[in-house]
Write a structure and sequence with these properties.
six-stranded mixed β-sheet, mainly beta, about 425 residues, Cathepsin D, subunit A, domain 1, Pepsin-like_plant, single chain, 2 domains
Length: about 425
């Protein structure tokens, strides 16, 4: 999900026993209603194993939670903090498919509700903006909203993540959703102290997202060290002091020093200031695994669209707009020609680093049967002043989040069919 509420954790938890954790997750994708994929966990060595992972325009991992473990489908979301699972309850929207694997608290000996009298259940403490209240059983109830309108609510609980007999977390705080607009849970992976990686003391993770059109949609995901990192190009993350109060700034997001966009050999005439947060925080550029599309502020979007009109304007679908955010769209029948005329798209960062984010027809993503769009939307339609690099522009590359060194790594790869 693109943007989320910020939270604070008072829990300290650790993975054990290894400090050089390296877990690898097979990532597969197949078409259901949106595209989905599933992963499975197996132990390879004492500190190196494989885990289930799904890809459905978001990254979905099958995580073993509870004692004994129950496999729960969770979207890997670097744009949010709170992790939550689907507990027994109801899905509010009829449009949500009933393909839900519910977590049963009564089957887990390590499950515990968070009582109302704990500090975490009190609103308005620093960085804790999650609306909470006491339910009739004196358990801490929460409601969690995302910028795209999705919702999850239920109880805050503590529970274990058990990856193998030697890789088990102590109890982590997460949400146990009994009503939501999603059919999966969420694995919050931003820099907040309540996120999964912060609670589990994981300082590095990476993933390789396969493209959406191949026959083998299996990629790979790592918690910990990635053996391919020697070939990565790194970009330093922007960080912000805790004291900074900017209404449009998400201080817990992975913020990149983006400088510009190049399409083919044409560097677009976009001021670098458009990609940098101003005093209000507007213009922040974030990379987010939980956002499907990439979103640009108006000035950048307009320049990209103008270039698309110059290159392939006559082939655009007239009057068509996808989800009220994207209007650079084409009939599928002309997608190959459109791709050839557009060529490559590059995102430019500090120190001359350029990242190829799409090539030819791969720049287009199918939004409905027979319609493909350049995977870029207008961020103002999300009611945000930010640039968000979504997973549509993270296909066929390694993306590594290195928190210890405050940097993001990129490495070109053919992600389909990767093996650990």
């Amino acid at each position: 999900m693109p943007l989320s509420l910020l939270l604070l954790s008072l829990f300290g938890v650790l993975f054990s026993p290894s400090n050089s954790l390296s877990l690898s997750f097979p990532l597969t994708s197949h078409s259901v209603s949106s595209q989905e994929a599933s992963l499975s966990l197996s132990s390879k060595t004492k500190s190196h194993g494989k885990l289930p992972f799904q890809y459905s325009n978001a990254l979905v991992v099958s995580v073993p939670i509870g004692s004994p473990p129950q496999q729960m489908d969770m979207v890997v979301d670097t744009g949010s903090q709170l992790s939550w699972i689907q507990c027994h309850g109801k899905v509010r929207r009829k449009s949500v498919k009933p393909m839900i694997n519910w977590f049963d608290p009564y089957l887990s000996s390590s499950f515990s509700f968070l009582p109302c009298n704990t500090t975490l259940c009190r609103p308005r403490i620093p960085d804790f903006t999650l609306p909470t209240s006491c339910d009739p059983t004196r358990h801490c109830h929460y409601s969690y909203f995302y910028a795209d309108g999705t919702l999850a609510e239920g109880n805050l609980v503590t529970e274990k993540f058990t990856f193998s007999s030697s890789l088990t977390t102590r109890s982590l705080l997460l949400g146990c959703a009994t009503a939501s607009t999603q059919n999966r849970g969420m694995l919050g992976m931003n820099t907040g102290r309540l996120s999964f990686i912060s609670q589990a003391k994981i300082s590095k993770f990476s993933y390789c997202v396969p493209d959406r059109t191949g026959s083998d949609l299996t990629g790979l995901f790592y918690l910990g060290d990635n053996p391919n990192s020697a070939k990565f190009k790194y970009v330093n993350m922007l960080t912000f002091p805790k004291s900074r109060r900017s209404p449009n700034l998400d201080k817990l997001a992975y913020t990149l020093p983006m400088k510009g966009i190049r399409i083919g050999n044409n560097k677009l005439n976009i001021s670098p200031a458009v990609f940098k947060p101003d005093p209000s925080g507007a213009g922040q550029t974030m990379i987010d695994s939980g956002s499907d599309l990439t979103y640009l502020v108006d000035e950048a979007y307009s320049k990209v669209r103008a270039e698309m009109v110059r290159l392939v304007g006559p082939m655009m679908k007239k009057g068509y707009e996808y989800a009220a955010v994207a209007d650079m769209c084409f009939d599928g029948a002309v997608a190959a020609v459109v791709g050839r005329r557009i060529g490559d798209m590059w995102f430019q960062f500090e120190n001359g680093v350029e990242i190829l984010v799409g090539k030819g027809e791969g720049l287009l993503t199918e939004v409905e049967k027979g319609v493909k769009c350049v995977g870029i939307g207008r961020s103002d339609r999300l009611v945000t002043e930010s640039n968000i690099i979504g997973n549509v522009h993270q296909q066929n590359m390694w993306v590594e989040y290195d928190l210890s060194n405050k940097r993001i790594g990129f490495g070109v790869a053919m992600c389909s069919g990767l093996k650990a």
